[in-house]
Structures are given as structure tokens and as C-alpha cells.
Amino acid sequence: MTDIRQPAHHRSRGPGRLAGLLLALVVLLGLCAGTATAAPDAAAEPSQSTTVRVPARAMDAVAAMQPSWNLGNTLDAIPDETSWGNPKATRELFETVRAQGYRSVRIPVTWTDHQSATAPYTIDATYMSRVKQVVDWALADGLYVVLNVHHDSWQWISKMPTDHDNVLARFNAGWTQISSTFRDEPRTLLFESVNEPSFDNATDAQKMQLLNELNTSFHKVVRSSGGGNTNRLLALPTPACTPSQPFMDDLSTTIGALHDSNLVATVHYYSWYPFSVNVAGGTRYDENAQKDLNEAFARMHDTFVAKGIPVYLGEYGLLGYPDDNHPSRIERGEALKYYEHIGYAARVAGVTTALWDPGFAYLNRETLQWRDPGLFAIKSNWTTRSGTASFDKVFVSKSSPITAQALTLNLNGTSFRGLWQGGTKLYAGQDYNVSGNQLTLTAKTLTRLVGSRAYGVNATLQARFSSGLPWQIDVVTYDSPVLSNTAGTTDSFTVPTQFRGDVLATMEAKYADGSNAGQTSWTPFQEFNMAFSPDYPNGTIILTPAFLNALRDGEAATLTFHFWSGVTITYHVTKSGSSVTGTTS
What we know:
- This protein is α/β, with parallel strands linked by helices.
- It contains 14 helices and 28 strands.
């Protein structure tokens, strides 16, 4: 995964008893072959180890790893474990992850700054010991572990087209040392050859040829190291871990040629790009985004799973959600629809999925609490479907008479059970009406819910279904936002904005001749937080230096701000050198 906070050259993106008991039950009931008992590293504090019986068949073993979680931006951080803002991994972290119902963890590791760049390409012993300590903690907690070579992919492996022999020698030397260190670990430890492999200035055909060489060499090095590595599960990626058909077909050919029943295909999925980052009008989890997901998982199933090759989706999530130190660029309810869908699609396709967690998004590494407990409820999607609705907000204009408002229910195979406000059930036919899949809140109910009609969220309802999670609906009072004239520079420019309860969805930018304005020139709808960002506490909309510097000098750009209420506001910005002016007309 590439962390969106990092430079562009390496961008890609409390324990619960019940979860632990369910996990133990699944393990005990599994049809398994081979017992893996992981002991903690000798240098680590003593702890009881957990015995995991690993199924003999690769398909069954990978299925037993569902669901999975990534220890992102930690051992893969550059140059050191804490360089990207996360604390050092602890045993308690893995205990928390396991207690929450996860069965496996992917531990990405960047070796570059801890491995000699020249022969014999020795990995620093202290660093290797630290990696082993972290891996052993996870294994001791009964988790499957996927260990890999991570950002090395773009740091030096990408140079393979022009430095073939040195890259291959360093790659083989690295895996020789890793294989030796972990040769006696249980079969619950998997190796992944390389994360999101890339090759500079290479065609797709060349990328596939070079990756086939790396994957084949990785397989030979690991298998020849003996011990537990003779039948360890090995994960092989496509170029960039992209689930495109040509790349997956080529990987299928590679796996077939190796004649090894303990191989796993691995790819990543971050949704339809416009939705994943909120660009080009991709504000909603719409038909385009749903189609992209359905087709990707169908390809994974048909290319691998249907042929008996397990698939480990080594990373999934959204590239722009949650966003670190910025307003969320993906609307929360739309994100929840995506997570609900991916859980269902993975079950249908028979794919094991690993959530990419860079540390600032999901699990707080300091407190070991989920940053958004409501969002972590996505774990429900591991086992069942949930109903949703066309949106998670109902906007009620403060300056207009209150009228009935309708939402479309997305049942997803469930049945609608009713509406609640907290512990109070609302009455069908009185507080709301349902006709087919249309849910309508009456004007009388909305009048009660908005109360004094203060701007913002006045009440929250829950639509409950026959299975899965309830769908939260915020009732919001708003009026059309008001923007004001202003002046600034390309380094610092903010539009004074009275949001008045409304929420910004996207921004469109065009010139008078109809051409697109801004750094994302292929679409008028600019990327959220990259070109513009709402600052609700300070009552402004920030236009970024990257957006402003991309504007034509002396030519007015017309901005159209789209708000979630449906309101659009037009604004004009003109750059002259480093000076910028903004006007409402």
C-alpha cells in the first residue's frame, strides 16, 4: 500500500471475549493437517503461545485466514519503524487485533535501509531480530502472518530493467536470509515475494516477464532453504498487485508452471479510482463503483479460485478514506456501502481480504481503540449482508416550509424492520411510510426531529433490517451556504464560507471557454483535499497551492461548489502572478 501522506514516488495507499471464543471454536472444528505452535522470541517477555491447526490444502488454509489486517506504516516505514508516526508494534497490539476477530495479519517490511546495497547484501542482524520478534508475537497469539518485501519494490527492485543482475542478486540474497531466519517457524507464517512490484520504463509485457523471473527465483530460494519452508504457503503478486485480467492470467501461468500446491495469488483492491479519492465527480458509491468491484472479484474467482488457487487480497480499503488530518474526502455513508459490498463480494468469490490500516485510519496504535467504532462495525460484513439507503442524511431547509422527505432503501437481501430514534421505535403509517423500497419521513415527524432548527445535525435515526447492521440517518437543518469576496496568494488562499449546516461534496472548475481548470486537467471535478478542502471550524474553503499554481495567469476560473444538500454555489477565482482574488460574481 502506498501511504497518501508520503511523497508521490511511493504512493500507491479493547479485546472482546466473544470474538476470541468464536475464533477458538472455528479453529477446533476445522478439518486440519499439521499443528503449528508458535513460541515467542527468546528476547521477548514470556507469554502463552496459541496452537493453530493449519489445514493441509492451501485453499482451506487461506480461507482460515479470513479476515486479515495490515500492520501498515510500521516495519514498512522508511527508514525506521516509527518514522511515519506510528509507535513500535507491541504484543498487546496483536492481542487486540485477534480479540476483535481477525485471524491473520500482514506484516509489511521494508528492508532497504537495513540491507547492504552491495554484495553480499547483508541484512542488519538487529533489524532482522526485531522483525522476528514482531512476527513471533503475532504467531504466538494464534494469528496467521504474511511477511513480505515491501517498499523495496519501488526503491531498488524497480531498477531491474536497467540493473537486472544486481537487483536479482540482492533480491535473492534478501530472501535467502529471511528464509534462513524463519525456516523453523510454523506453517501459519506465509511469505509474500514482493509488494506492488513495479519496473521503471517497462511495458506491460516486460513487467510480467521480470516479475515472473522474481517470483520463480523467490520460490526456488525459499523451497531450497529447507525446514518449514519446504511446504510453507507462498504468495505471488501481479505487477503492482493489480487485479487486471492480463496480469492475473500471466500469474496463473507462472503458478501452474511451478507445480506447487502451496502457492497463493495476491492482488490489491482500492475501489473505482474516482470514488476512492473523490475526483471526477466520484462522490457516491454508484453503479460505476459497484460494477468495478463486482468485475474485479469475478476475475479473481474465475482466474484463480475456480482453478483451486487461493487468493489473498493483501490490501483493500479506500485511497482517500479515512484521511489523515483532513476532512474526510469520502462521505461516511458512501464508504460504509463500499465496505458492506466488499465483504459480500469476497464471500461469494471465496477471497480472503486484508484491511490496509496505516495507523491513522482504523486502529489507534497508542490507545488500541478503533478510531471510529461505527466504522469498525464493518466486521459484520465478514459474515452477513446489511441494508443501506440512498444516503445517510436528510437535509431540511431552515428557510423553507418543512415537507416530507424520501430515501431509497437498499435491502441487499434483507427485509426492513422499522425506524428507531435511540431506543424509541417510530410508527409506520404515522411517523414514516414505506412503499416498495421508498422510505418517507412525514413532515410532522421531521418538524419534531429538527426542534428549534439549529444548523447541523438535529437528530439521528436508525433503519433496522432483518440482518446485519442498522443504517444511520442524520436529520440535518441547513440553508444555502454563503461565500464572500476575498484576496490572497497562491501560497495561502481561503474562501470565507458560512456553511450554515451544509456539507461540501465536490468542486468543479472551468474556464469561460469550457476547458477544465486546475491540476486535474482531465476532469472539471477536482480532487478533494488535493485541490480544495473545507475548513468547517474556521468557516473557510481552502484552495490549495497546487490548484492555484495550475491556473492560467490572468484568466478567471469559475468554481462550482457542490454541497450534499443538493445546493450548488458559483465562485470566481483569478490568479495574477502570485496574487489571487476571489469573487461571488
